[in-house]
Amino acid sequence: MKTAPAVILSTILFVSLSAQAMPMANSGDRFGNQVKNTNITAEEVRSAQEAWGKALIQISKDFEKGGSKKATATANAVLDAAYGYAEGPVLFKPTLTTGEQTFRTSKEGALAYFVGGNKKFSKDSGFALKGWEKFDYRNAAVYINGDMAMTMGNVILTDKKGNVTTVDKTWGFKKGDDGKVRIVLHHSSLPYNP
Amino acid sequence: MKTAPAVILSTILFVSLSAQAMPMANSGDRFGNQVKNTNITAEEVRSAQEAWGKALIQISKDFEKGGSKKATATANAVLDAAYGYAEGPVLFKPTLTTGEQTFRTSKEGALAYFVGGNKKFSKDSGFALKGWEKFDYRNAAVYINGDMAMTMGNVILTDKKGNVTTVDKTWGFKKGDDGKVRIVLHHSSLPYNP
Amino acid sequence: MKTAPAVILSTILFVSLSAQAMPMANSGDRFGNQVKNTNITAEEVRSAQEAWGKALIQISKDFEKGGSKKATATANAVLDAAYGYAEGPVLFKPTLTTGEQTFRTSKEGALAYFVGGNKKFSKDSGFALKGWEKFDYRNAAVYINGDMAMTMGNVILTDKKGNVTTVDKTWGFKKGDDGKVRIVLHHSSLPYNP
Amino acid sequence: MKTAPAVILSTILFVSLSAQAMPMANSGDRFGNQVKNTNITAEEVRSAQEAWGKALIQISKDFEKGGSKKATATANAVLDAAYGYAEGPVLFKPTLTTGEQTFRTSKEGALAYFVGGNKKFSKDSGFALKGWEKFDYRNAAVYINGDMAMTMGNVILTDKKGNVTTVDKTWGFKKGDDGKVRIVLHHSSLPYNP
Predict the structure, then answer these.
(1) ipTM (interface pTM)
(2) Which chain C positions have a beta carbon within 8 Å of B184's beta carbon?
(3) Which of A83, A85, A75, A169 lies closest to A114, judged by CA?
(4) Cβ contact, residue pair B152, A194, below 8 Å
(5) Residue D168: Cβ within 10 Å count
(6) Please, what's the b/e burial string for B84-105 (b: 16 or more CB within 10 A of its CB; e: otherwise)?
(7) What is the CA radius of gyration of chain B?
(8) Contact A140, B91 (CB under 8 A)
(9) At what angle do helices B42-82 and D5-12 cross, to 10 degrees?
């Protein structure tokens, strides 16, 4: 009788082996089994999304307490910590930019968008200064690939008057050699209004 | 006299070595030096962007020649060849979608957007059927990371009447095991109108 | 008094936020939150290592039961399922190969090593035919990077007479678009004997 | 007559488009077209391989000129610049190590192997101190995947007496956020001697 080794093997290979079948289970841990893993996790993505919201609200609060100077200092720190401008261009299309200044691939352009006050970007009034008090988000889907993750969905912002702004938002996050997650892609747009 | 080996080494290591300094240059080719490279290239990104534009125009032309049926068949083939729906959700925010149907993470939703005719997506009138004749694009920046690349910039579409539509567009392309490049992320939005 | 926003932010950003602090926790799940993840996991690496051992023992058993023909069929199926030869050269240095035939970058060379019987590789006696009955392994360290993982450590093989062979082994595993894990790198060597 | 859109499209999509067919060719460069690419290249792999050989010879020369102290300082600098120990365990199996100390996943163990003089590694006599004068290499195959590349092949070392040592060597190189290439995997073994 003929055997079908491919079929047999496919059941042997790549199946989760039970402890009974593998008496040496966990034996892989001997010698210490040190594991280095450079990949980004879904947990890290979620944390980075929530940190973005927290940071936006913090800039708004600092603007109220300390004015433009304090808000700018905070926004500057946020950009350094949460965006990848130190390593090259960031693919950033903010919600309310237009024309030649639509894309903010440099940190200067991003800072201008968040807190205004830069003559080179005279149309920027400071998106982060608008009294934001609450942040929420809903991911339509998340794509994780190596040290990068992309999210797409809605971000819902509420200001101190209770006005709600919903945007369609795509983020690309990259985990660095230092284990920190930074935004390298950010496309935000107002919902289409037919 | 003390030497500073770290400095000396930094000039030795990781510099492009001249042919004179390395008489065995090219010796790495012996044994055949077969190279397998899974990474996506800037060339492949450009080709994929241009292929997207070509495909959109093709759907428009097929609609004129063969009506909805022909356009739908073409759009279906485009989605299979150029998008990653076969392997999971695609992060797709088309230009003109709204509300609960803003994000089209399934192929059905993407097809409805391009050619309409699906009762589940009753607001879709078929973006690809609008008589597109010319496609152009301008990348603000490109980010290449392993088998993925992201682009952000403008796409400029012209229809047969000469009307020009410019959109802000982000794409994420992934190169598969088969060497083909597919869209796994696509965020398109009309320019902000203050 | 001066504030230090960078410090403040560093405590805000990238920290695991408590449920209390984030009332919208889990809100990211709305819209379905479909997650596509191409990365290889430590679990998958362990399973692939254990599957390799199982497969080697299976070839030995099949050789006893069905002779060279059966063993060859099984080895062929193992190579197709567990190695990446279908997509290009595999970096394979088996334990007992020498000279011009040390590296087996093609499937034919790998099959010859495991089961012999190929005149082009006349020194190969069939490593997998040596009556292997038990497999164990100990990872010294594991490196996970995207869809690839590398392991280094000892593999301990016992034959039916109770003879134990220990080898120093490095594996490189790659997870394919189909979610399956395949060996693309395999360097095995006998321990150095001073 | 029925058309076969899938076939038509497959010729449209993903083909290298001629300049004639695409009058807007190169238009993707407008807006600056800044490209960030984190991937490792074949050139960088070759440079890193040659830098390793240069560094080994340098340690040998420094040992002759400045004795153990100078060689150790150089080896220390080489390990910092060329290996990834700063970011975690390196998968390193040197040519001449045995038993419990076969794998040198820490920098201390690697340094001991290259220059000896560490009581914890009493069998190490200093591999880099053996009067190496010439380095050559032959890759059997190279595998490039994202920011990592693996090479397998022979390294051929010649000492000042003209003695030649050939080893079977596998390297795994990783390109860091700083653009520098470091060894994270290194398996070296003497050829099998039947």
Answers:
(1) 0.86
(2) 36
(3) A75
(4) no
(5) 24
(6) bbebebbbbbbbbbeeebbbbb
(7) 23
(8) yes
(9) 170
Q: Tell me which of C183, C189, C193 to substitute to probe the interface with D (most D C-beta atoms closer than 10 Å).
A: C189
The string of pLDDT tens digits covering residues B17-59 is: 222 233 333 444 545 569 999 999 999 999 999 999 999 999 9
Residue that wins the pLDDT comparison between C38 and D9: C38
- Tell which of B177, B180, B181, B185 to mutate to test the C interface (max C CBs under 10 Å): B177
Q: Which of residues 123-142 of A touch B (CB under 8 A)?
A: 123, 140-141
State both tokens at B181. Answer: 């490049």
Neighbours of chain D (3+ CB pairs under 8 A): A, B, C
- How many CB pairs (< 8 A) connect A and D? 26
Residue-level pLDDT, tens digit, chain D, 194 residues: 343 444 333 333 332 222 223 333 344 454 556 999 999 999 999 999 999 999 999 999 999 999 999 999 999 999 999 999 999 999 999 999 999 999 999 999 999 999 999 999 999 999 999 999 999 999 999 999 999 999 999 999 999 999 999 999 999 999 999 999 999 999 999 999 98
Tell me which residue in B34, B36, B177 faces C176 most closely, judged by beta carbons.
B177
**HSE-up (13 A, CA, CB side) for residue B28:** 20
Q: Which of D1, D7, D27, D50 to mutate to test the interface with B (most CBs of B within 10 A)?
A: D50
3-state secondary structure of D3: coil
